[in-house]
Design a protein that fits this description.
Elements lengths: L11 E2 L2 E2 L22 H12 L8 E4 L1 E3 L3 E3 L4 H10 L4 E5 L3 H8 L5 E5 L7 H12 L7 H15 L6 H18 L2 E2 L7 E6 L4 H11 L3 E7 L2 H4 L2 H14 L5 E4 L4 H11 L7 E4 L5 H14 L2 E6 L2 E2 L2 E2 L5 E6 L8
Parallel strand pairs: 3-6, 6-7, 8-16, 9-10, 9-12, 10-11, 12-13
Antiparallel strand pairs: 1-2, 4-5, 13-16, 14-15
Helix pairs in contact: 1-4, 2-3, 5-6, 6-7, 10-11
């Protein structure tokens, strides 16, 4: 992976690079009304996608300047630039916050969607670039290697919940689950027949990944809003809706309080089961919920597992993750 974007670094990697345009001898361009300020944001985004091996969408563009003192900055001639973008075949065009009204009033009549970048850049360049990069980076189809590279790239550039759910389910989930399942569970032979997980935040990807990896005969996801997730209640509820849509019918239980997790987990783990080998996966959920799950597992004699994912720019990379055994079922041998 290339290093983070920093001012003053040479723009060059092994397979591509940039170099100044050579002006023909004798051609005086000193009086030309040229300025590259408005192309800064678009260039930075394109370089970021290229640096991580992506392919850019020619129907997505931007016109935002950069100030060393203030970060992102507006540009001049917004109306003309929107028209030029439309003429170039662009469908989505990003502008700085204060330029959005002018851009939309022009773009609405031309069939081009104008979007605003509300970040100033003060919180970091990557955060400001994120919405632009999500549209600029073309999602591949069909090739497992390219699909996983795209998914990992999106994680690095944008953090969690970085790809559309339909794309994740249709293109990413199967390949990701096969890669994790192929590594097995460190410390355990075979796969439990019953799996219990929790959801307390907006991470819907983890639950879908775990269900696809384990392929259990019996599965339960305990969904419970905590004080932390309550601060982002809308995101939590949206995540729950996604889980109810894609997980087996009736497998998502909505709990009212964290204290209900232990009893609900114990009831699921000790009920009659095909094969009788149960497990709880403790990657998701709050710390109290993890304790409740562990208590329930001890009571029921179930395995305790977690998905150990290497982090890239502080974002877990599921493509490089492996399941690990924390506590074995005392009645089952472990490797």
């Amino acid at each position: 992976m290339p290093p983070p974007l920093e001012s003053g670094r040479p723009i060059s990697w092994s397979s591509w690079g940039l170099q100044p345009l050579e002006i023909p001898d004798g051609l005086d361009v000193s009086d030309w009304p040229l300025s590259s300020d408005s192309g800064w944001f678009s260039l930075a985004g394109t370089l970021a996608v290229a640096a991580y091996g992506g392919r850019t969408n020619p129907e997505v563009g931007a016109s935002i300047a950069w100030s060393a003192l203030d970060g992102l900055a507006p540009v001049k001639c917004v109306e003309e630039k929107v028209r030029a973008a439309c003429h170039a075949g662009m469908k989505v065009f990003f502008v700085f916050g204060r330029d959005i009204e002018t851009a939309r009033s022009t773009g609405d009549g031309l069939g081009i969607e104008c979007r605003r970048i509300s970040e100033t850049g003060a919180a970091g360049l990557w955060k400001a670039l994120s919405p632009f990069l999500q549209e600029l980076d073309v999602p591949p189809r069909g090739s497992p290697a390219e699909v996983l590279d795209y998914y990992r790239r999106q994680k690095v550039l944008h953090g969690r919940r970085s790809v559309h759910q339909e794309y994740f389910v249709e293109e990413v989930l199967h390949e990701l689950a096969n890669r994790i399942r192929g590594k097995g569970i460190q410390g355990l032979d075979g796969w439990p027949d019953r799996l219990l997980i929790v959801q307390s935040g907006d991470n819907w990807e983890l639950a879908l990944i775990l269900h696809a990896v384990f392929r259990p005969a019996a599965f339960k996801c305990l969904s419970c809003m905590t004080e932390d997730s309550g601060e982002k209640a809308d995101n939590f509820l949206k995540a729950r809706e996604i889980l109810e849509r894609y997980l087996p019918e009736g497998s998502v239980d909505n709990l009212g309080d964290e204290s209900e997790v232990c009893d609900a987990a114990r009831d699921f783990l000790v009920s009659p089961a095909p094969g009788g080998i149960g497990a709880v996966e403790i990657t998701g959920g709050s710390k109290p919920m993890t304790v409740y799950l562990a208590w329930a597992a001890i009571y029921a004699g179930a395995h305790v597992l977690y998905l150990d994912a290497i982090k890239d720019r502080n974002n877990p990379d599921p493509a490089n993750a492996r399941l690990r055994l924390v506590r074995p079922n005392p009645d089952e041998p472990s490797s």
